[in-house]
Amino acid sequence: MDPETTRIRDDTTFYPYLYMAIELSNAQWKLGFTVGFGQPPRLRNVTARNLTALADEIHQAKVRFGLAENTPTLSCYEAGRDGFWLHRYLQTRGVTNLVVDSASIEVNRRKRRAKTDRMDVGKLLTMLIRYHMGEKKVWSVVNVPSLEEEDRRQLHRELMAVKAERTHHINRIKGLLASQGVMLPFKKDFLSDLEAVHLWDGSPLPANLYSRLLREYERYKSANQQINQIECERAQAIRTSDDPVVEQVRQLLRLRGIGLNSAWLYVMEFFSWRNFKNRQELSSLAGLTPTPYQSGDSSRERGISKAGNRHIRAMAIEVAWAWLHHQPDSKLSRWYQERFGQGGSRTRRIGIVALARRLLVELWKYLETGAIPDGALLKEA
Fold first, then answer.
1. What is the pLDDT of residue 262?
2. Phi and psi angles of residue 378, each rounded to the nearest 5 degrees, phi first
3. pLDDT score of 4 more than 70
4. Is 3 among the domain residues?
5. DSSP structure class, residue 270
6. What whole-number distance in Å separates Cα of residue 109 and Cα of residue 107?
7. Distance between CA atoms of 130 and 172, rounded to whole angstroms?
8. 138 shares a domain with 118
9. pLDDT score at 68
10. 259 and 333 housed in the same domain
11. 140 Cβ contact partners less than 8 Å away, ≥ 6 residues apart
12. Are residues 251 and 221 in the same domain?
């Protein structure tokens, strides 16, 4: 080989970067800095959420490595409880930041492996350099929403959380009664029915148990009231808001089989701010893509990945069943019946996942282009 073809000439331009990795925790952040492979990282600890100390450490790292103050800084941290506020702060400071899906970070597969914050920071720095050098598949980068886009998700997520709390209170009341051999339907006149309850020997409920049931019922009523308030707020927005995002909700609601809960969730979690390039990205983010396993003579399917948005995935399965009921003559429903309809229970459940994936793609196309899914009907005005 001619050495002239591989020699780095003296006039080659070198653009330095400062690489920074942040290992977050509740009390303390560990920072790692480097300028490239082969350079031992500079490790520092700062108090969690101390932005002044963070900015000072970035400045000190540039001084330590002999970099100019305007040298570009690339940083990363793992997505988690701290959310995206730090990402937005770093952007305002001129730092190019990546929020990384922690499940996509490669790890040693030994049964026992050492793990420390120091090692984690070193691993993040190495992978950040590899990503910057062009190895884009080294990990998965989170698409960070804007503050407004993130705020739109609060309403339906709170609604789902409060509904789960209400179910928890109902189940606890039923469980407490069942522990005494009492089965009492949970109806509007529950309290009056509770006063008439007697145990197996004709004695009334114990006083402490009765008091606990009353308090638990009050918590149930409080959760129920909050649910009604949130649903009224959401309905008001759908009726009166001129926000283009809410208009997408109205567009989905025109289709039979799509209800208020699913339309709102689909738009606020997915379609209003995710810039999907193709249906593969859409299915992957919903966690509905298959996970084949093939090694030598062994080949099998291990089900869907479940690596995406769990709220969307659960709703997509629910909407798929509703679609079969409300849109039986649509092309998707006919495809499902021809391929899975005559099978057993397990076959139909496998098929509904495939239908959910295809239906999600059709709804995306419907919002993007206005093309109604083949054979689907709109609700009557």
1. 96
2. -90, 155
3. no
4. no
5. I
6. 6
7. 52
8. yes
9. 93
10. yes
11. 100, 101, 103, 104
12. no
Q: Could you give the number of structural domains in the chain?
A: 3
Find the mean pLDDT for residues 99-109.
89
Say what the pTM is: 0.87
Separation CA 303–CA 306 (nearest Å)? 9
Nearest to 22 by CA among 65, 51, 60: 51
3-state SS, residue 347: helix
| Whether residues 59 and 136 fall in one domain | yes
3-state secondary structure of 92: helix
| Residue (of 313, 261, 323, 258) closest to 284 by Cα position | 313
Residue type, 114: A
Taking CB atoms within 8 Å and a gap of at least 24, the contacts of 230-234 are: 230/155, 230/158, 230/159, 230/162, 231/159, 233/155, 234/155, 234/156, 234/159, 234/260, 234/264
* Domain shared by 275 and 223, yes or no: no
115 and 164 belong to one structural domain:
no
How do 298-304 and 290-295 pair as beta strands? antiparallel
- Residues 218 and 222: their CA atoms lie apart, in Å, by 6
Chosen domain end from 208, 240, 272: 240
What pLDDT score was predicted for residue 108?
A: 82
pLDDT band at 1 (very low <50, low <70, confident <90, very high): very low
User: Tell me, what's the pLDDT at 94?
Assistant: 95
299-308 long-range CB contacts below 8 Å, 24 or more apart?
A: 304/353, 307/103, 308/284
Cα dihedral 194, 199, 202, 207 sign: negative
* Residue with the two structure tokens 């459940």: 349
* Distance in angstroms (rounded) separating the CA atoms of residues 253 and 273: 19
Residue 119 covered by a domain: yes
Its domain, for residue 344, covers 246-369
Q: Same domain, yes or no, for 273 and 319?
A: yes
